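Entry 12.
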Amino acid sequence: MILVTAANGRTGRSVVRALVAAGHRVRALDVAPGVEQLLDTGAAEVIVGDMLEPGDLRRALDGVRSVIHIGPPMHPREAEMGHGVVSAARRARVEHFVQFSVTHPQLEPLLNHQAKLAVERVVLTSRMPFTILQPMHYMQNVDVMRTLHDGVLRQPYSLDAHLAHVDLEDVAEVAVLVVDEARAHHYATYELCGEAFHDAHELARMISAAAGSSVTAEQSAPPASTTGETHPTEADDYREQAMSRLFEHYGRYGITGNSNVLGWLLGRPPTSFEGYVRRSLAGAPAEPVARP
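Predicted 3D structure (tokens):
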């Protein structure tokens, strides 16, 4: 049995689908009741449980051989959750612990990177065989169909910032690979990044070319402040600060990475942004036929 944590999120759902397609029995854990829908995609078991609750973790780890730990993004207690999962996995004598981290976790100003790095430190001293995956900014952060519908690619930082991207489907494929061939990937840390850096104008042009429809890039305002609420929560405050720091960093520096490791693992070139766009277009539902 393979346990996937935060399985109801975008990353978790992609990883669960890839594992199931490869023939693995998957137990999906998430605090959101929506995780139960993963039974429909082939998960063997689902648990609605909290990574901050030791009892829920004991139940989730019972009989588990491997763990793929995904932390909930932009959560003020993500590092605490990760520490709890590692400790519970040690007690359960898990054979292989796979952590989803982030490219360049040492970027201290970024709160989400700080959390991932804190979990990496615990994993490194866990005495468990581990693999740490450090994916880059996902291509899926650009919703191709919504962008085409609006005719505008919007982002809340400089349109001239060059960012590396990675296809989440490539990342999920690597997650399956390191589970299938676990011994070959014990004690490894892998940066997972696509081949090219693009600014927003270039992304818009690629979408336009593939779809045959005009798309422009536009810098949008950051998401509305959550602290304008009468009683903002700790999570609201943390998320706002984390996103503000992330957008400031991207706008000033962009973010870079190298595609060599991902290409070596996949045995092929990583998916290009153009390839991601074409796949998105091919998977889009057909336009409804007008009826008299």
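Annotation: The longest strand covers residues 130-135. The first helix runs from residue 10 to 21.
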